[in-house]
């Protein structure tokens, strides 16, 4: 293993494999990891039963009381873990779509893939009837089917980013209307549960909910890592990427599947959570001052955003709690307005 230092970055080589480590990216990611650890520890201490820091540490060493162990390890920790892993998945999904479309509005919640995943989950839950695994499968199939429809409708001698976004917004509107129809036709209790879940919530999640998200991350992130160089090339435009030997449409389609799978898995577990995938890549880009979208900072910022939003949702009107989606959609609206003003100012 060798390392070649350059101003502001370090090139690390292990045999024939090499990658560039940017100093500022390391600092930003390190700071975001510290935020996640700090906010996660705070979340574990808060609630109807507050736990001092010494008892929290005792719970992780297995020396705490049975009640503290149950509260921390069985009730609160799964929610924190899902917030972190789900935020990573959404941050990476947003980075994929914004790179593919070369547009800061290129996000699964804007393009409609979240709505498609929610539609698939609703059909399984309210119409077909199925267990947890069937709901996860339904969300994944719904998201992929929506992606296929949007991709085919956006095709015109290739797929252009802006065309993909506009068609995705239209498909999202249709799916949202269909989702409302499904809930109105459903049994009252099921409809109320579906509407609450549709806001995006991490409440009442346990270790059984951590498993599918963790499996998705474990499978999809290595695949994305293998495709990361091609993803970066797509940001230069189809012509340049093609000239560099990248099979553009096949690469775009594979990345589309990975991005949809990431967001669909989170949607199946927690419902559609907006804003995180939209904002994380752009905020990470500004913090790292990078020329393009960066995957690791986007993932770290996604985890921080979702975890902080969930803590705010739990504490802002305590002892009552809001769905995390209510917080993220509010922040997303503010961010989207600021983004549109910024983009308009550049013209």
TrEMBL record:
<feature type="transmembrane region" description="Helical">
    <location>
        <begin position="290"/>
        <end position="308"/>
    </location>
</feature>
<feature type="transmembrane region" description="Helical">
    <location>
        <begin position="253"/>
        <end position="278"/>
    </location>
</feature>
<comment type="similarity">
    <text>Belongs to the binding-protein-dependent transport system permease family. FecCD subfamily.</text>
</comment>
<keyword id="KW-1133">Transmembrane helix</keyword>
<keyword id="KW-0813">Transport</keyword>
<feature type="transmembrane region" description="Helical">
    <location>
        <begin position="161"/>
        <end position="178"/>
    </location>
</feature>
<feature type="transmembrane region" description="Helical">
    <location>
        <begin position="26"/>
        <end position="44"/>
    </location>
</feature>
<keyword id="KW-0472">Membrane</keyword>
<keyword id="KW-0812">Transmembrane</keyword>
<dbReference type="InterPro" id="IPR000522">
    <property type="entry name" value="ABC_transptr_permease_BtuC"/>
</dbReference>
<keyword id="KW-1003">Cell membrane</keyword>
<feature type="transmembrane region" description="Helical">
    <location>
        <begin position="79"/>
        <end position="98"/>
    </location>
</feature>
<feature type="transmembrane region" description="Helical">
    <location>
        <begin position="110"/>
        <end position="128"/>
    </location>
</feature>
<feature type="transmembrane region" description="Helical">
    <location>
        <begin position="205"/>
        <end position="226"/>
    </location>
</feature>
<protein>
    <submittedName>
        <fullName>Iron complex transport system permease protein</fullName>
    </submittedName>
</protein>
<feature type="transmembrane region" description="Helical">
    <location>
        <begin position="134"/>
        <end position="154"/>
    </location>
</feature>
<feature type="transmembrane region" description="Helical">
    <location>
        <begin position="320"/>
        <end position="341"/>
    </location>
</feature>
<dbReference type="InterPro" id="IPR037294">
    <property type="entry name" value="ABC_BtuC-like"/>
</dbReference>
<dbReference type="Pfam" id="PF01032">
    <property type="entry name" value="FecCD"/>
</dbReference>
């Amino acid at each position: 293993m060798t390392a070649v230092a350059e101003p502001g970055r370090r090139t690390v080589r292990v045999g024939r494999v090499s990658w560039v480590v940017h100093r500022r990216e390391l600092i930003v990611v390190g700071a975001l990891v510290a935020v996640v650890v700090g906010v996660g520890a705070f979340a574990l201490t808060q609630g109807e039963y507050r736990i001092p820091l010494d008892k929290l540490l005792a719970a992780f060493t297995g020396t705490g009381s049975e009640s503290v162990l149950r509260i921390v390890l069985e009730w609160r920790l799964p929610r924190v873990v899902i917030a972190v892993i789900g935020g990573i998945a959404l941050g990476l999904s947003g980075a994929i779509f914004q790179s593919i479309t070369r547009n800061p509005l290129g996000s699964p919640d804007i393009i409609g893939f979240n709505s498609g995943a929610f539609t698939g989950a609703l059909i399984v839950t309210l119409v077909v009837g199925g267990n947890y695994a069937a709901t996860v499968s339904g969300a994944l199939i719904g998201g992929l089917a929506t992606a296929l429809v949007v991709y085919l409708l956006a095709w015109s001698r290739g797929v252009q980013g802006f065309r993909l976004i506009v068609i995705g917004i239209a498909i999202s509107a249709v799916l949202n209307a269909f989702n409302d129809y499904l809930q109105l036709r459903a049994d009252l209790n099921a409809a109320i549960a579906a509407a609450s879940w549709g806001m995006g919530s991490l409440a009442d999640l346990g270790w059984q909910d951590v498993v599918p998200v963790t499996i998705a991350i474990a499978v999809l992130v290595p695949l994305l890592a293998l495709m990361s160089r091609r993803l970066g090339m797509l940001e230069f435009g189809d012509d340049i990427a093609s000239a560099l030997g990248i099979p553009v449409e096949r690469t775009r389609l594979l990345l589309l599947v990975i991005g949809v799978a990431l967001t669909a898995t989170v949607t199946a577990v927690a419902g559609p959570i907006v804003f995180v995938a939209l904002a994380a890549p752009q905020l990470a880009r500004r913090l790292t001052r990078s020329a393009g979208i960066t995957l690791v900072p986007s993932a770290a910022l996604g985890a921080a955003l979702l975890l902080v939003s969930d803590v705010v949702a739990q504490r802002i009107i305590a002892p009552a709690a809001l769905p995390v989606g209510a917080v993220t959609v509010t922040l997303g609206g503010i961010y989207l307005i600021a983004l549109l003003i910024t983009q308009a100012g550049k013209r």
